[in-house]
UniProtKB/TrEMBL annotation:
Taxonomic classification: Bacteria, Bacillati, Actinomycetota, Actinomycetes, Micromonosporales
Gene source species: Paractinoplanes hotanensis
Residue ranges occupied by any HTH gntR-type domain in the UniProt entry: 32-100
Organism superkingdom: Bacteria
Signal peptide: none
Family in the record: In the C-terminal section; belongs to the class-I pyridoxal-phosphate-dependent aminotransferase family.
MF term (GO), any: transaminase activity
Pfam families for this protein: Aminotran_1_2, GntR
UniProt entry keywords in alphabetical sequence: Aminotransferase, DNA-binding, Pyridoxal phosphate, Transcription, Transcription regulation, Transferase
Name of this chain's protein: PLP-dependent aminotransferase family protein
CDD domains the record matches: AAT_like (cd00609), WHTH_GntR (cd07377)
């Protein structure tokens, strides 16, 4: 069989012929696991550049005939690539490669500068299962519903809708968000209380620029990204410990606190009822709560926990986004702050960017109004539950003694480690086995027990099982 070394582009998007690009030999096909064998070959062809974006894969019958396997195996392997966001299928157009997430060329100066904004240990050559937390299932983006809503919006908007508008957001989206957050999260707000922002990161940036205090309490362990955002704007984050009941409220000495009460990052615990009452009492005495509701839509084994904001709208600044439900690249989020804080926040938002783009706001408003957003969330929850269950099942097999927490909700889980080895070293050894994970110590401000934070949303069940197998090998050594 001929081995093709260069990239295959096809003829103006036409299908490539034959199976040579896979470098697979039918005689070497395993007796079991044919779908995994073929899917791995396809991924390798993508990561090595033999399949460029826009390439149409061979017809399933043709590839099945050449590899002497059933057409169903090829169909299943193509579906795995679609699930992973590497390909897309359209009626009449076949299956087309759309991305190269594992292909890593020599970094440009711009790429190197961007890498400095990320956490240490960026994905390196040889990483083929990325379990970084905070990455949603991008392949699940509701393209059809979004396109349908966008067409409807373009049919009905006026020229004035596309001009400079309210820096706090379009009236339609603010109204839909106020109603949706009231129904699903127990938030108490009028449309004029909502400020549309470019994700929780901008919400924190605006708050950091307008808070009177220059010191803010943060969870430890907690979101490193949130700490970095606050520090960039001159607000010093100070650690407050987290235990099985969430933030230790009795340890608060600052005037403001940032926390994730519904699903603490990264431990996954829920702020306990007694702690909620204590925190609200603390806020009533003059404290400010910044509530990061980053992944409340994803829950599996427990009822939703209402937002703190609904209990104390005059003391809580509430922030959320579609980054974990749609895609982080949408850069759409919301900030609902106490009314005394809103004029300064709106001024800071105006001075920052004059407001978010109007068209995506109007499309999201329509998705909320028609129920398409809620239907999408239900589908994603079911999909993520299957992925979580697959990872848990594989961890029980390959890491039977692992202490796993934070599994009832969210898009990640936490493994606590035994032994004296630093978790950064464990993460480095995992990377050498092709699995990227976050050491828990990255998210700590003070020393504590080692652990690994594993995101499961961006990988299908078979890849999660393979990642668990490799982690088992790492731990065994």
């Amino acid at each position: 069989m001929v081995r093709v070394e260069g990239p295959i582009h096809g003829d103006r998007g036409g299908p490539i012929s034959g199976s040579d690009f896979l470098q697979l030999r039918p005689a070497e096909a395993p007796v079991k696991g044919l779908t995994t064998w073929l899917a791995d070959g396809l991924r390798l062809a993508v990561s090595h550049g033999r399949l460029a974006p826009g390439t149409r894969l061979p017809a399933t019958r043709l590839l099945a005939s050449e590899l002497r396997i059933s057409r169903g195996v090829v169909v299943d392997a193509y579906q795995r690539l679609i699930d992973e966001g590497l390909a897309q299928a359209r009626t009449g157009a076949g299956t087309t490669i759309v991305a190269h997430p594992h292909l890593r060329d020599a970094p440009s100066d711009r790429r190197r500068s961007l890498d400095t904004l990320r956490l240490p240990l960026p994905p390196a050559d040889g990483i083929d299962v990325d379990l970084s937390p905070g990455v949603p299932d991008l392949a699940a983006f509701p393209r059809t519903a979004w396109l349908r809503a966008e067409r409807a919006v373009l049919d009905e908007i006026t020229a004035a809708d596309l001009g400079y508008g309210d820096p706090g957001g379009t009236p339609r989206l603010r109204a839909e968000l106020a109603g949706w957050l009231a129904r699903t999260r127990g938030v108490r707000a009028e449309p004029d209380d909502v400020i549309v922002v470019n994700g929780v990161a901008q919400a924190l940036a605006l708050l950091a620029q307008t808070l009177e205090t220059r010191t803010v309490a943060v969870e430890d362990p907690g979101s490193r990204g949130a700490r970095d955002q606050l520090a960039h704007w001159g607000v010093r984050p100070e650690p407050v410990p987290v235990d099985a009941e969430g933030l230790v409220v009795d340890a608060l000495t600052q005037a403001a606190v940032v926390l994730t009460p519904a699903h603490q990052f990264p431990t996954g615990v829920v702020l306990g009822p007694a702690r909620r009452r204590a925190l609200l009492t603390w806020a009533a005495a003059g404290g400010t709560i910044i509530e990061d509701d980053y992944d409340a839509e994803h829950r599996y084994d427990r009822a939703p926990v209402a937002a703190l904001q609904g209990s104390a709208p005059d003391q809580v600044a509430y922030a959320g986004s579609v980054s974990k439900s749609l895609a982080p690249g949408m850069r759409l989020g919301w900030l609902i702050a106490p009314r005394r804080m809103q004029p300064a926040l709106l001024t800071a938002k105006h001075d920052s960017d004059l407001g978010n783009p109007a068209l995506p706001q109007l499309v999201l408003a329509r998705l909320l109004a028609t129920g398409d957003y809620e239907r999408h969330l239900r589908n994603v929850r079911n999909r993520q539950r299957r992925r979580r269950d697959a990872l848990l099942a594989a961890l029980r097999v390959h890491l039977p003694r692992a202490r796993v927490t934070g599994v009832a909700a969210g898009l990640h889980l936490l493994i606590m480690l035994d032994g004296d080895e630093p978790d950064t070293r464990t993460a480095e050894r995992a990377a050498k086995h092709g699995v990227l994970v976050h050491p828990l110590s990255w998210h700590r401000m003070t020393p504590g027990p080692p652990g690994l934070v594993l995101g499961y949303a961006a990988n299908p069940p078979d890849r999660l099982a393979e990642a668990a197998r490799r982690l088992g090998q790492v731990m065994a050594r």
